[in-house]
Structures are given as structure tokens and as C-alpha cells.
Amino acid sequence: MVLWGPVLGALLVAIVGYLCLRGLLRQRRPKEPPLDKGPVPWLGHAIAFRKNMFEFLRHMQAKHGDIFTVQLGGQYFTFVMDPLSFGPILKDAQRKLDFVEYAQKLVLKVFGYRSVQGDYRMIHSASTKHLMGEGLEELNKVMLDTLSLVMLGPTGPSLDTHHWREDGLFHFCYNILFKAGYLSLFGYTKDKEQDLLQAEELFLEFRKYDRLFPRFVYSLLGPREWLEVGRLQRLFHKELSVEHNLEKYGVSNWITYMLQFLREQGVSPAMQDKFNFMMLWASQGNTGPTSFWALLFLLKHPEAMRAVREEATRLLGEVRLEAEQSFEFGALHRMPVLDSVMEETLRLRASPTLLRVVNDDQILQMAGGQEYLLRSGDILALFPYLSVHMDPDIHPEPTAFKYDRFLTASGSRKVDFYKAGKKIRHYTMPWGSGVSICPGRFLALNEMKLFILLMVMNFDLELVDPDTPVPPVDPQRWGFGTTQPSHEPQGRLFLEAS
């Protein structure tokens, strides 16, 4: 009789020993970046990194300079912090830096979706066809009508027009943007009231998953939290199933196009359900938080609020909150003040991490002429929030909100920014860049701009406590798209009479 306990114990010790030995044996080779393996074998710097990624990387940059390799949970990450050296990484003419491999592993873990050949290119093709040009204009109209429906309710104003309404500003923005985006992309039934109730219930479940998401990615959940994640995944797979899609009207052409591709590739309905969950997250995980920060910054900076309202009134006249309203969507492309507000908000609060798997040993030449050897199997990483958005050389007073930072003296869009006297191409990178740039960025930006316009043109807005400071960022959210606040300020709004 085999004593499986001792056998499995010995096997576990052997595996752990191997992993620790692998970390201990790694040495810096000639021309490689500075290597910092951290205080704990195999784990390396994982605990400090996960606790506060921003502060950790700032410390590492001060210690090692603009390029360094750190060990995080048995994997080695090389961070490049000099934005003037980003070009070869983002272009990757030799195709030795693979974004797709890492992304496929992540979406399998987080959403349960197993990629098929060509689906990454398909998503970009679908987005080019349906989230740009005429396809984008069509979705803009749907999004505006749905935003109005969510704000007014199915039978008229759902917000009391005779009393001020108080709500957590983050919850208010996230709730509206999620429901509008969900209904616009994944369709609706003939019962609008039921649709809104179902969207509200789904939002509450989405927020539960959202709160667990950062620690889920890092595998730091407790036993009960792992069970909760499983429950939430199953719920979203069911609610977003292709079977339910057949019962709905107005499923967006974007979603329809992608599901058609998966069907043609022989992907099972169950895996298509998981794909839908991934697309819901990709499309709705950042628009609500970004809109919250934009609205909060406008409330804290009255001069910015006035400038946005004046621009909107001049170009659009009255923007009324009503069903089936007429709207000149072309004006969204002629609003440099609102564009600057959004770009400044994203600069201050969007913190994506750009990751590439190094497929073969290769040389990276930095802007200053230094050459570094990148080791095959490592992950090359960029964190533009620290290296670009918060660089005082590129953006003076980087922590301050300046609504006109991206405006020229003549009021047009400013695109000329410099570092060390050299014009820099990537002066903000909220959507990523290169092969990993967000394919839905134009829809997301228009959705947020429509929401801000409806809010500032139809509501009296104020903070319950006008002196409340802008809350700091929840440190768990660094590196996961748009950050979220550590606590929620209370807002007060009053729907103006039509």
C-alpha cells in the first residue's frame, strides 16, 4: 500500500526546492540590466509589488535607474522606465516581444476563456469595423439613447426633480455607465423596466467581482473568496450566454461579428459565453471609474466646469436629457476643452501596465545609446503612469489637475510635449500602445464624453462637503487600467427643469 501523504509531501518539497534553487542560481549576465531578486527566494519582491506597485517601482527606479529586472513570484520582469526608449519596444519590428501569449494566459485564468487561432486579430478587425467610422456613429446614437433611458427610467424621470438627491459619486457614475454600456452592447428586451432591473442586479454582481479582481489576478484570495469568484464567473457566463442573446433585440454589431467568427471556428457555446464575459469586462471595467474622476475634477475646479459648459452650449445649444433626442455627434470631435479634460483625467488616473514576453535573447538599445541584453522567457514591462504621466519634465506639476494642459494658447489640441529637450511621441498612454492598444478606445471615450455632457448640461451638481479633498487612489488598483478611489466622496445633484 502506497502512503500517498508522504509521497505528495516529498514531491511538494522537491518542487518548492527547485523553484527556490532556480531563483537562487540566476545571476546577471554581461550586458543584462541590473538584477534585483528580492529578499525571499522565488517570491522575490512580489509582496512589496502587490502592496503598492507605484511606490515599489519608484523605489526601484531610484535605486537602479531607467532599466532593471526584478523577480516577482518566480517570474522575472524587466521594467523600462525611460519613455524615450519605448519606440523599439512598441514597434517591435523583429516580432521578438509577444503580447498575445501573456494575454491568452491571463484571460484563461480570469475569465475562463481559452483563445483560438486568430481571435486576437479578429477582435481588432471587429473593433475597426464597428467601433470606428460609421459603426461608431451608430453606436454613439444607441449609447446616448440608453444613457437617457438609464437616467430617466422607462416612464420618465427617475430622479426626483423637486429634491436634491445624494449618492456616492463613484457608485453613481459607475452604475450609470455600466448599465448603459451593457444594454447598448448586449441588447435588451421589449420590457424596458425589466431590462433596467436586470442591468442593476448585474452591476451589483459586477462590482463584487471588480473588488476581488486585483487579488484574483495575483492569486491572493482566501478560500471563501475563491468560491465567490467561481460563483460570479458562473453567473456571468449564464447571464451573458449566447442562448440569452437570441432572446434579445439590439445586440451590437460588434458583439455579433465576434461571436459569428467564434461559431465559424467551431468554438462551443459555453466558451462563447466566457468570451462575452471577457468583452463585458473589457468594455465596462474602466468607463465608470474614469467618468467618476472626470466629474470629480470638474466639481473641484469650477473654472473647468464653466469652460466645458460654455464649449458645449456654443457647439450644441441645449443638450436635453430626453428619449430619442437629436444630437450632432460630429461635435464630439470639435470639443478641445472636453477632450483636454478627459485626457488630463486619464493622465492622472489611468495606470495600465504594458507587458511583452521576450521570445528570444535580444539586445535593447536605449535612447542614450546603452545596450542591454533581454533574456528569453522574461517579461518586458512598461508602466507609463510613473515613467510618462508623472514625469515633471514632460508634464510640469504632474500631480495637479490642469484642465487646459492639452490645449494650445489658441485653444486647439496640444500635441507637442518634450523630455530632455526632445519631442516625445508617447506623452500619455492611458490606452496602452502598439499591438496592445485598446481597440475600443474611441467608443469608450465617446461614451464618457456623452455622459459628462448630459451631467453638466442637465444637472446642478455639487459635493456634499465642498472642502472634501480628492481621495487618494486605492493602491491595489495600480496597473489595472483606471484606478479607483480609496474612499467615496458624496455628491448631490438636482435635475434641472426641461
Can you characterise this structure?
The protein has 498 residues and is of the alpha+beta class. It has two domains: 4-114 and 353-382, no CATH class; 119-349 and 434-495, Orthogonal Bundle (Cytochrome p450), CATH 1.10.630.10. 50% of the residues lie in helices and 10% in strands. The chain is built from 18 helices and 13 strands. It has helices at 4-25, 46-51, 53-64, 87-91, 99-111, 119-130, 133-152, 169-186, 192-217, 223-239, 242-245, 253-264, 269-284, 287-300, 302-316, 336-349, 384-389, 441-458; strands spanning 35-36, 67-72, 75-80, 97-98, 165-168, 354-358, 362-365, 371-374, 379-382, 418-419, 422-423, 459-463, 490-495. The strands form four sheets. A six-stranded mixed β-sheet has the order 1-2-3-9-6-4. A three-stranded antiparallel β-sheet has the order 5-13-12. A two-stranded antiparallel ribbon has the order 7-8. A hairpin with a 5-residue loop joins strand 7 and strand 8 (371-374). Helix 8 (169-186) packs across helix 9 (192-217). The longest helix is centred in the middle third of the chain and has 26 residues, at 192-217. The chain is globular. The termini are far apart. The model is unreliable at 1-21 (pLDDT under 50).
